[in-house]
Amino acid sequence: MHHVTLAEKNQLYPVGKIVCLGRNYLDHIRELGNKIPDRAVIFCKPSSSLLGNGGTVIIPAYSNDCHHELELALLIGVKGKQIKEEEALNHVAGYGVALDLTLRDLQAELKGKGLPWELAKGFDTSCPLSDFVPAEKVSDPNNLQLTLKVNGEVRQQGNTNMMMRSVEQIVSEISDFYTLEPGDILLTGTPAGVSRMTSGDHLVGAIEQVGTLEVTVA
Ligand code: MG
């Protein structure tokens, strides 16, 4: 069983499901040449994909093109189904820094065949994740600067105010499909600048008011 930590409160949450939103930043949709979705693009990662801060990413041998995607993560603290947008933030216990690592070559192949993306998104170590800061420490989750550096060079930069769906809309929309339970983790999509990682790369993701996440590629 994997656990995540809600810092300062010294609370441990057993990890439930990890639900990820795709195509939530226009600049990222454009860089991959994707269409703007009319319905949220949602997929799940298994809890076995989690990697703690300071960990080592293992890129599977069947891929030559593993991309980083820096994302704001939400930790669900209160159970809910069909949550209204105006109630959504009451269900969020904390915020964290996550990477949605993606085997872009395999994903392109699966997309081309109309198949689900899970094999490209759910491999072991594909979800590096920081500890969570309590929600009350974050003034506005829809206005946070995100920066990812690889070997000291800025690769991704954005702000959650560029998301097409707000944090409240994400919680509400995902809870239309899945009952959200304490310990569930939601990933909110990535801004532009995704790129290939290579062996030995050192990644540092930072989100304003939330924290930092560091990993190294094996
Ligand atoms: Mg993503």
Polypeptide structure, described:
- Helices cover 14% and strands 34% of the residues.
- The strands form five sheets. Strands 4-3-15-8-9-12 form a six-stranded mixed sheet, covered by helices on one side.
- The model has no long low-confidence stretch (mean pLDDT 96).
- The chain starts with a strand and ends with a strand.
- It has 218 residues and is α+β, with helices and mostly antiparallel strands.
- The protein has a single domain, classed as Fumarylacetoacetase-like, C-terminal domain (Fumarylacetoacetate hydrolase, domain 2, Alpha-Beta Complex).
- It binds magnesium ion.
- Magnesium ion (MG) binds at residues 20, 22, 69, 71, 100, 189-190.
- Residues 20, 22, 69, 71, 100, 189-190 line the site of magnesium ion.
The CATH architecture designation is Alpha-Beta Complex
Secondary-structure element series: EEEHEEEEEEEHHEEEEHEEE
Q: Let me know the number of strands.
A: 17
Category by helix and strand content: alpha+beta
The unique ligands bound to this protein are: magnesium ion
Q: Beta fraction of the residues?
A: 25-35%
- Order of strands, widest sheet: 4-3-15-8-9-12
Largest sheet: 6 strands, mixed
Overall mean pLDDT score? 96
Gyration radius (Cα, Å) is 16 Å
CATH homologous superfamily title: Fumarylacetoacetase-like, C-terminal domain
